[in-house]
Amino acid sequence: MKIEYRRLTEKDLETFIEIRIGQLREEGAKEDFDLRPNLMDYYKRHMTDGTFVSWLAVDSDADGKIIGTSGMSFVEKPPYFSCPSGRIGLLSSMFTDPNYRRLGIARELLGHVVADAKAYGCGCVQITASDMGVLLYTNFGFVKNGNFMQYTFR
Questions:
Q1: Does residue 146 lie in a domain region?
Q2: Which of 21, 94, 100, 150 has the maximal Cβ count within 10 Å?
């Protein structure tokens, strides 16, 4: 198997979105509606304005099948002591096909999007990690912050 890494392009979006939906299902998300149109709108807008980047892992021996995904959204908040630039990378869409796990693919993808966040001027990168991903992120250097909370409008 030959694994190659490349940036997400608009022609990859339908497959990328299906992988994202599968990832959310695997993590136990409840499906209240079809998320595909919202995801398509988000990715198209933010890829265009440069506030979303993604790297893909593809198996070139399997006709370029996408076997791993990553995503990084860039947001800006007022600067604070642990992030003086106020620019934050929000990591998402980290997924590896179950048949390709434990090969270092996620770590390689993570390295690419973290480098993109640094180049964008981010002072930190944040993620809400699944149980499966905690070890990957901890080994990479992420530190768990137990203060994360979310309010959802209903």
A1: no
A2: 94
Provide the domain count of the chain: 1
The domain of 101 spans 3-140
Model confidence at 122, pLDDT cuts 50, 70, 90, reads very high
pTM of the model: 0.92
Residue 126 tokens read as 């944040």
Binned at pLDDT 50, 70 and 90, residue 150 comes out as low
Domain-embedded: residue 148: no
